[in-house]
Specification:
alpha+beta, Muramoyl-pentapeptide Carboxypeptidase, domain 2, 5-stranded mixed sheet, 25% helix, binds zinc ion
Length: 132
């Protein structure tokens, strides 16, 4: 199992990623052959609201029992000359999709991968974003 960071909510509430979600994320990393840095994973609902996250953010699902949740990965989908690694971005999205992740946000400084139920408002979407 990959040693992940950010497996508990940073507000100190104690919310912790479910085993099913971490297993799922582990399969993504192994399939992609990557171990990228993580900038966000578990968020309780109050903390997500405080930092301006979407009310539909899959981050809040990470601590719930089951396979759903989200992680922000320190992979920049920009040119190497600008410090990015677009090939890593491609690999991680391809691997995450194969493991059932169905929400993607391609941001200037990170890639958000999320797994939500099919009836969730953000299921099967790709967003563009600017990292905070
Ligand atoms: Zn919290």
């Amino acid at each position: 199992m990959t040693r992940f960071t950010h497996t508990t909510c940073s507000c100190g509430c104690g919310a912790t990623a479910s085993k099913e979600y971490l297993d799922s994320l582990d399969r993504v990393f192994k399939r992609a052959g990557l171990n990228p840095g993580i900038s966000s994973m578990v968020r309780c609902r109050p903390h997500n609201k405080k930092i301006g996250g979407s009310i539909f953010s899959a981050h809040v699902l990470t601590a719930d029992p089951g396979e759903f949740g989200a992680t922000d990965l320190k992979i920049k989908p920009v040119a190497r000359s600008k410090g990015g690694n677009a090939k890593q971005a491609y690999k991680i999205i391809k691997a995450a999709q194969a493991e059932g992740f169905n929400v993607f946000e391609v941001c200037n400084q990170h890639i958000h991968i999320g797994k939500v139920p099919e009836n969730h408002p953000m299921a099967n979407t790709i967003y563009w974003g600017v990292s905070q």
